[in-house]
Fold this sequence. Notes:
By secondary structure, the protein is α/β, with parallel strands linked by helices. 40% of the residues lie in helices and 24% in strands.
Amino acid sequence: MTDPSKPNLWGAAEAYEQYMGRWSRAVAPLFLSWLAPAPNGRWLDLGCGTGALSEHIAQSAQPVKLQGVDTSAAFLQVAAQRVPQANFQVGDAADTGLPSGTFDYVVSGLLLNFAGDPQQALHEMARLMGPDGRVALYVWDYAGQMQIMRRFFDAARIIDPAAAAFDDGVNAPICRPEPLREAFKAAGMSEVEVTALDIPAAFEGFEAYWSPFLGGTGSAPKYVAGLDSETRERIREAVRAALPTGPDGEILLAVRAWAVKGRVA
Length: 265
């Protein structure tokens, strides 16, 4: 998932995979289990990124068609390697150019708050869905239990209030149950349901937690990349002190995504 207005935010597929892609990959099977799709469906993964969700669709949903769309050609190269049975193309979430009503399942992982116009992206998803189909997506609980990011920004904002400009807990109010529900209804969907998807995130030590923040790809790493060395070190130590650390240095955090699904009314 990429925002074309921020060309440097989601640049490196490998850095993104270490920072966030691997956690999306772990949430994807929970999301598909909750969606409970019928086999032999036609699928669109909008904002497919490096293919975390597409890969699980291909493995477990028995699709007869699987299409992925993302603004990043670099991400799509990785996705095509991982999911060779799918078709991937560069496109805009708000205007894919794909024919209306051609998919049974129009889904997205972690796209919504990075779309230039989230409501228009939802209208596009509804437009692409065929009769009796489903629109469904998941986003991180940025303001609550996406603790990988929450622990970082809660510590960073005490030292540098400017960190709030990169904090999706502040900047993505749609990523909460009631705003998600209302956004789906505003896009013409009914039978809207929202649920929490929870996974653990374990790190063998602080460096394993911290190193993905140095990759420059994603909101928090982009913020870290722009810091002077003194401020970066102060934030690093503040984050270290705030993390729950076991006797052998291990760190265990909660990761929550909000999932939402609906039908076109």
